[in-house]
Amino acid sequence: MKALQYRSIGSAPEVVVVPDPEPGPGQVLLKVTAAGVCHSDIAVMSWPAEGFPYELPLTLGHEGVGTVAALGAGVTGVREGDAVAVYGPWGCGSCAKCAEGKENYCLRADELGIRPPGLGAPGSMAEYLLVDDPRHLVPLDGLDPAAAVSLTDAGLTPYHAIKRSLPKLVPGSTAVVIGTGGLGHVAIQLLRAMTPARVVALDVTEEKLRLAREVGAHETVLSDAQAAAKVRELTGGVGAEAVFDFVGAQPTLATAGAVAAVEGDITIVGIGGGTLPVGFGQLPFEVSVSAPYWGTRGELVEVLALARSGAVSVHTETFTLDEAPLAYERLHAGEINGRAVILP
Ligand code: NAD
Ligand code: ZN
Ligand code: ZN
């Protein structure tokens, strides 16, 4: 089958032919119907050889949906032909966190060498994907594959982040979204669907801000050195009860710290390498800072339900598997508005 692989440190990903995978005991083989392109893959492909955590070549793709093509021995609960979404942050399934559905925080994944597809295990940017256990599959139940695939990360990750701050996002409150790309433009919709908060979105180009307004941002602000002052002004000086940073670089974290309200939440989702000083007096009183990872299995079920209700939809640009290297180039150049989706 064809697969998009990151093959050597520093090189661009390539479409290659690899053996068709076969499901072993307990595994499920999916015919991939769509795979999403995440900025985290670009981060992975920028890491140096020293300390690189995964074996190469690596088939990319940690957002995946597909149709069940074959079942390994002993698999029950899914049938050939079922259309399913893949819950990506695989865990051991039995530790205390996994027992709560929080496989993203599995206590034993590292020790057992369990990796998400596309982030260590072979990913979804291929004609077929092996899934280690049917519990990682959530029925699509009528959702369109290309429209739904990015909900598994670009939907689930902001959903998990926003849930933490729901008690603070009361009527009259403000939520700030920094970076309105793949994750951010879904975050805006989730905030509108789940909270009465006023949503202020920041990005670096007018085109991205236009999409932010189209998907529900009440206000948009260009992300520059004056952004924090503008956001403060929009909130009457109070600041934002919740700030979600989908960039995580030094300038955006500085903005996040400067726009947070007293007792506000700052959630750092982007892995842009910035840091935020949290000592006494560095941030408004009692600000809480968190850097979450992905989301829980139960939350993926909820995000898909929200999409079925029509409250959230991913703005997609589709590519064939042969065009996948181009999708990454365009994402790297900041030219994707919404999410790039590969249709193998
Ligand atoms: P993306 O490229 O689709 O979106 C990023 C957006 O940020 C773009 O619209 C870009 O124009 C904007 N941006 C860049 N610099 C900016 C600045 N200085 N101020 C404001 N906006 C700026 O990326 P994505 O796939 O949505 O991923 C967003 C981030 O989240 C990445 O760092 C990714 O690695 C990370 N991520 C983290 C998790 C997690 O579990 N923590 C999960 C998925 C992605
Ligand atoms: Zn991702
Ligand atoms: Zn576990």
TrEMBL record:
It holds the Pfam family ADH_N. Its cofactor is Zn(2+). It catalyses: a primary alcohol + NAD(+) = an aldehyde + NADH + H(+); a secondary alcohol + NAD(+) = a ketone + NADH + H(+). The keyword Protease does not apply. Its EC number is 1.1.1.1. Gene3D superfamilies: Medium-chain alcohol dehydrogenases, catalytic domain, NAD(P)-binding Rossmann-like Domain. Residues 10-342 form the Enoyl reductase (ER) domain. Keywords: Metal-binding, Oxidoreductase, Zinc. InterPro entries: ADH-like_C (IPR013149), ADH-like_N (IPR013154), ADH_Zn_CS (IPR002328), ER (IPR020843), GroES-like_sf (IPR011032), NAD(P)-bd_dom_sf (IPR036291). It comes from the Bacteria. Belongs to the zinc-containing alcohol dehydrogenase family. This is alcohol dehydrogenase.
